[in-house]
Every structure is written in structure tokens, then in C-alpha cells.
From TrEMBL:
This is CTCK domain-containing protein. InterPro entries: Cys_knot_C (IPR006207), Cystine-knot_cytokine (IPR029034), DAN_dom (IPR004133). Residues 1-24 form the signal peptide. One of its GO terms (cellular component) is extracellular space. The lineage of its organism: Eukaryota, Metazoa, Cnidaria, Anthozoa, Hexacorallia.
Amino acid sequence: MASNSRLFLIMYLVSLCLLPSLLANPMKAALASVHCERKGYTFPVKVVGCQERMVTVNTCIGTCLSFSTPTGSNYEQVESCTCCEPTKTTTIDVGLWCQDASNPGSFVKVRLSVHVPLVDEAEHKLQNLQVTLEH
């Protein structure tokens, strides 16, 4: 939860510095609805010739904020987008029972590395903050 509060403060300060007009009531309401949580997610690991195995990892789930608004200067537009996503990934080893090619009808345990999100605490990652010129 601390990261959500920190994100709100960062977004608020960025908005305050870049564009005071963004702090109108609609923006405040939109910022208040932004959240990101860590949740368990189960997915199947499938390999041909092996028994399927379900693996549970943590993932980020939430709502995000994006906006595009004029700055008041000639043709300038401020655009921002936040995304609820993990800040790191990792590789985990998954053991699968696979058919033994040298002994039909029997299985051997095979270790497979799977790339997954590493989510100790879900947090929003501010992306694509930019000022663009439109003609």
C-alpha cells in the first residue's frame, strides 16, 4: 500500500509542476481511482510429451490513468500514461513429468525454466510522460 501512496504523491507532484490546470476536479477524481494490487495468478505450463503443471505466481492487477491535455501554449499537449505492472521479472524452475523416449510408458522428471513477473509489491510504473507538438 505504501507504493500506491507514493505513486499518488509522485503523480500529483508531476501534475503540479507540469500543468497546474490538470488539478481541476476531474483530474483529482481520476487520480483517486488509480490502484494496483498484488494477486496470485495460476497458469498452465505445457510442453509436448509432458504432463501439464499448474504454476502460481504473483501478478499486478489494477486500474491505471492516462490523460492528454493542452498546456495553454501554442500547440503543446501533455500526455501521460501509467501502467500497473511489476518492476522486475525472474526465472523459476518448474518440474514436469515427461515421457521417457528410451522407455515407452514411463516418465522422467524434467526441469524447465519459466520467465515470470517478480512481484514483491505491486506498483505503478509511470510511462510515456512526454510533451508533443501538434500542428
